[in-house]
Design a protein that fits this description.
Helix content is 34%, strand content 23%. It is α/β, with parallel strands linked by helices. The longest helix is centred in the first third of the chain and has 15 residues. It starts with a helix and ends with a strand. One of its GO terms (molecular function) is DNA-binding transcription factor activity.
């Protein structure tokens, strides 16, 4: 099989399942694992997939089926009372004139109606945020371009990461899938994790928005330790039960 044919077969496998392994591709395509690794490395360099240990994932999304099969429009309006209260507390941290980064997720999206009358610059890779704030007269929106992840209305990939590296923001507000008992903040979407890490890197202050159900929540990919954030905005104090940060680490907890 020619390399171009293998690349097409790998792309088709990713579209079907969202993730592939070196071993399975080697067996299916009847080539050595070393050849598959080289193919995956080339495709990753081209931005066609995201390389992970033992294989690759679709750069447009994750292997988390139940959440990602629904569009963001299906879930954006379903913020709970706790999530809306957390969003309001987050907005209280924002000052007019600031540059603010908004992540994807329902809790962060719940901030948008509360920010619509403010005077701000908003940096985001979330098209849901863009649509919510597009008509706000006092808000300038900086959209991080990249590859569209349609199911969740977000931009991901190397172009998004590169664009993010060129900005600096006063405050970044992030969501997550869960927080482990040791304080590790988690997500389940390989293509979103570099964006979240990038938001932490470019922000003077960063906030994790997470209600009590995110402790432990879900997720298998570590974004950062909880202590990496300026503050946790949640609905329970001092920390949700079961969280024990490593010795010497701390995080401010902000409540609605």
């Amino acid at each position: 099989m020619l390399s171009e044919e293998r690349h097409q077969a790998i792309a088709a496998a990713l579209r079907r399942s969202g993730a592939v392994t070196v071993a399975v591709l080697s067996a299916q395509l009847e080539v050595s694992e070393a050849t598959i690794r080289r193919d995956l490395d080339l495709l990753a360099t081209a931005g066609a997939l995201r390389r992970v240990r033992g294989g690759a994932t679709d750069v447009r999304g994750s292997v988390r089926p139940e959440a990602d099969l629904r569009s963001f429009a299906d879930v954006a309006g379903t913020a709970t009372v706790a999530e809306r209260a957390i969003a309001a507390r987050a907005c209280a941290e924002v000052r007019d004139g600031e540059v603010v980064a908004l992540d994807i997720g329902t809790t962060v999206a719940a901030m948008c109606p509360l920010l619509a009358e403010r005077s701000l610059t908003v940096v985001t890779a979330s098209l849901a945020v863009v649509r919510s704030l597009a008509a706000a007269p006092g808000i300038d929106i900086v959209i991080l371009g990249g590859l569209l992840r349609p199911n969740y209305d977000s931009m991901v990939g190397t172009l998004t990461e590169s664009a993010l590296g060129q900005v600096r923001v006063d405050r970044a507000f992030l969501g997550a899938a869960g927080v482990r008992p040791d304080g590790a903040v988690l997500d389940s979407t390989p293509s979103e994790v570099p964006i979240k890490r990038g938001l932490l890197d470019v922000a003077a202050a960063s906030y994790l928005l997470a209600d009590h159900e995110k402790f432990p929540g879900s997720g298998f990919l570590e974004i950062a330790p909880l202590s990496r954030f300026t503050a946790l905005i949640t609905d329970r104090s001092p920390l949700p039960s079961g969280i024990a940060l490593p010795e010497g680490e701390d995080v401010e907890v902000l409540l609605p």
